[in-house]
Amino acid sequence: MVQEICRDIKQLDYAKRHLQTTLTALKRLHMLVNAVDQLELMSSQRNYLAAASLLEAIFADFRSVGPMDLLEENFASEEERKAVFANLSAACAVVDALGKATREKLIHLFCDEQLMSYERQYGEGGECAGLQQAEARYTWFYNLLAAIGDRLNAVFPKHWRIARRVCIHFCERTRTHLLVQIGAHTPDEMDVTLLLKSLQRTLMFEHDAAQKFEE
């Protein structure tokens, strides 16, 4: 008897959470649709201050996501995850309609968010910043891509090629990191063998990335 009551309560609780998640997603989608209409109106009236506030609300959805490799930890259920992904996908459609400049800003923001952990570990002063960590750098990126690839496809429009953009940002940061490491040593201090190994591994990654993300 007690077990049956507990089971019924559990089912009701699950149904309540599912309903709340669905209502939240619908509410956000409705807000995004209204935001597009308001943005068009604000643009026609040259009310750019109000338009900027609306854009900030859309971008806030993506800031709240955080690193996508940790995303599963934030959801109580699969239904909630799907609802959030649907909401983010709708936000991308809104951003797409606003033009290239807005889209580029969002992509840049998103890529920076995904590489925060990489910057902490491998950036200047990080515990893995040295040239001897070249192999670990690229392994880190491959692991990231494996973890978030499906989620990127579920959220972002295909023509954004978001995985490629994350890779480009990763390469730009890696270049900066390695140049700092090389510049920190005089020619006499430099370990030539280590430098050549790092360069060879970097060229291998460059070749692999070019094949994976070729136009």
TrEMBL record:
Q: Which GO terms describe its biological process?
A: retrograde transport, endosome to Golgi
Its GO CC terms are: cytosol; GARP complex
Vps53 N-terminal domain spans which residues? 1-59, 77-213
| Protein name, per record | Vps53 N-terminal domain-containing protein
